Amino acid sequence: MFDLKKREITGITVDGEFLRLATLEVSQDLVKVVKLQRARLLSLPDDLKDDRDRDDLDIPGNDEDDETAIFGLSDTEPAGPGALEESLDEDWDMTQENIPGLDDKSNATIMADLLREHLLQSITTSVAIPLNQTHLQLFSDIDVKKLSRKKITATLHERMETMYDHPIAPDQLVWHRVNGNGTLLVGSIERDVFPVTVLDAALPLFDGKIMVKTVLSEELILAGLIRTNYTLLDHEYTCIVHVEENNTTLIFMKGKEFHAVLPVIKEGSKNQRVGRTIFSKILFEVDRGKIPTLDRIVVTGDTLGGNLLLFLADQFIDVEVTPFEYDGDKFDVDATLDDDYRDYLKAIGIAWAGSDHAKADFIHLSFLPKYIQVRQQVFKLDWHGYVLLAMIALMPVLGNHYYQLKKADFESNRQTIQLLDRQISETRAVTTVVENLSAEYALMEAKAGVLDELSANTLKWSRTLQLINAATEGINSLWFTNFQGSPENLIIQGTSLYRDRIPQISNRFHRATLQQVTEREERGIIVYDFVLLVNEVVDDPDFFDPEKAILPEQVLELTETTGTRGTIRQ
User: Fold this and answer.
1) E strand segments, 312-447
2) DSSP state of 332
3) Which pLDDT tens digit goes with each residue over 437-449?
4) What is the three-class DSSP state of 360?
5) Which of 268, 272, 350, 539 has a 20 to 30 A CA-CA distance from 81?
6) pLDDT recorded at residue 555
7) How many CB atoms lie within 10 A of CB 167?
8) pLDDT tens-digit map of 62-120
9) CATH topology for 458-568?
10) Which residues have CB under 8 Å from 98's CB, separation 6+?
11) Of 113 and 61, more confident
């Protein structure tokens, strides 16, 4: 019922001008190399083209001295396997080299031809990003506990934009927490991954299905191979030395965690000074405290016939210096492949990383593009698929059971609704009476509101005018021309034939201010216009209380006893 067959996965790398494929057969406890393929690419992007004449720029006359000083080689001794790299051009290729006018479609044809050799309708692959194409950085100044994943990603994009001097796409940045301690390992790329574009272009040319599991940088692939095949203690520092024809990469690890990668060294196995350069780079990192101690050096690339190992061992006496070796309990090679698999280290590593075997030993900062992930989202029938099919088969039985339950509930609810309808019809007559009474009550409230509006302050003004009338009853030759009232005060304007009659009016109020007195001539007679501001009519607020009646004689008495606090503004 379940598929217990051994599964295969193919790792794809670009090594110089060659396309290398390594196919692993993955079982529960073992990965086995079963197929190796190589073909020369017809074109490369500028950033992947090797500078094969770089050694011509070296200072003449020093190579022999460097060779002797570093590796102890004499004039009669060979320079080591690095010189054998020139024989690569004599190997079998599927295509001719340096054909003008060819583009990625030709590379796609080569990729499709290699995949057809598998004779499979569905191929699972993993793709490696060439060395020096991925920027790996550690950040410890971002509070991952307080920020959401979205905000962390936005912060990192801002920093990468500053570094690259232009924005990068979401697929060009990935990160994960290192060992859960809050430090972030961040990987970023500036452009599309060349092997992925070739594989994507090969898809229409291949009759079957191509599944891409992961896209990892070769730096992390090398680190993952060390984690998988070596026992690493948490306090130990390991240096991975990967020497190629024209470049050398140094990667440092603390325990199983990635620690640092140095800028690529533009010297490789073709340069006799590479050993001394590697030594100086490692020593510089140790001296400046970036690497407190060094416990192990593993050479994963060209060892120059073992001379590089001997040189590094002589320089680092207390450090274990070894070539990379696979763990025999986890790794096997088909007998027909002999030692050819050693040239496919990175292709084997990326295939291993894409398998489920030892998955935890690889740091999965995958740059698999989103459009490929969406394209690969298909229904896969595994054990959970069979469970889903069984559930589909049970659905009719379960559906009928729940249908009967719901039907009984429906009948009960229908009877309840009928009973409620009868009760509603019985109470409808009462509802009509209540509605009529409510309408009458609302009408009465509206009328009462109108009366309140009409009678607002009538008592206050009535008694105020009553008081003013009583106050002026004994004062002759004085007239009021205007009254202006507000909730806070009263302004009285008038005219008097005699100036001394005006203060008599202001003194009739509890608190009043004579704001202005103007003299003018009216028909040959001198008259006095005045403006009086009354702040308080009386000192007793009960005077305006509608519950208390004020008799006329009480008003007169009130005007006679009102304090003399009126003032004349000078």
Assistant:
1) 320-323, 331-333
2) E
3) 899 899 998 888 8
4) helix
5) 350
6) 56
7) 10
8) 443 444 443 443 333 333 333 333 333 444 343 333 333 344 458 999 999 999 999 88
9) Alpha-Beta Plaits (3.30.70)
10) none
11) 113
Q: How far apart are CA 299 and CA 127, in angstroms?
A: 23
Comparing 65 with 452, which gets the higher pLDDT?
452
Q: Are 126 and 214 in contact (CB under 8 A)?
A: yes
**Closest CA relative to residue 358, chosen from 240, 510, 256:** 256
Nearest to 365 by CA among 224, 242, 180: 224
CB-neighbour burial class of residue 158 (10 A; exposed 0-12, middle 13-18, buried 19+): exposed
Cβ atoms of residues 110 and 42 within 8 Å: yes
Residue 7: what are its φ and ψ, rounded to 5°? -105, 155
3-state secondary structure of 104: helix
Task: Give 225's contacts (C-beta < 8 A, 6+ positions apart).
Answer: 300, 324, 345, 349, 352
| 361 φ, ψ (degrees, to nearest 5) | -85, -5
Task: Return the biggest CA–CA distance within the chain.
Answer: 146
Q: Tokens 């898809």 label which residue? A: 203
Rounded Cα gap, residues 306 and 73, in angstroms:
12
CA distance 258 to 176: 12
The tokens describing 365, both together, are 């900062």
Structure tokens at 7: 């599964």
Q: Where are the domains of the chain?
A: 394-453, 458-568
CA 19, distance to chain mean position in Å, is 36
With 0-12 / 13-18 / 19 or more C-beta atoms within 10 angstroms meaning exposed / middle / buried, residue 378 is exposed
Q: How many CB atoms lie within 10 A of CB 7?
A: 14
Amino acid identity for residue 420 in this structure: L
- Spatial CA neighbour of 342 closest among 263, 225, 223: 225
H or E element in which residue 352 lies: helix 345-354
> pLDDT tens, 503-541?
888 888 888 888 888 999 888 889 999 998 888 877 776
* Nearest Cα residue to 193 out of 288, 127, 245, 268: 127
Annotate 431-479 with DSSP letters as a single string: HHHHHHHHHHHHHHHHHHHHHHHHTTTHHHHHHHHHHHHHHTTT--SEE
pLDDT in tens, 220-232: 999 999 999 999 9
Q: Count how many residues are written for the chain.
A: 570
Q: DSSP assignment, residue 84?
A: G
CA distance 386 to 88: 51
* Cβ atoms of residues 114 and 343 within 8 Å: no
Helix (H), strand (E), coil (C) string for 138-190: EECCCCCCCCCHHHHHHHHHHHHHHHHCCCCCHHHEEEEECCCCCCEEEEECC
Residues of the chain with pLDDT > 90, as a percent, come to 41
CA distance 144 to 155: 11
Both structure tokens of 508: 């009739």
Q: DSSP state, 72?
A: -
Which among 210, 175, 190 has a CA at the least distance from the CA of 12? 210
Residue 58 reports pLDDT greater than 50: no
d(CA 502, CA 477): 10
Q: Give yes or no for a contact between 493 and 480, defined as CB atoms under 8 angstroms apart.
A: yes
Q: Which of 179, 196, 201, 259 is nearest to 226 (CA)?
A: 259
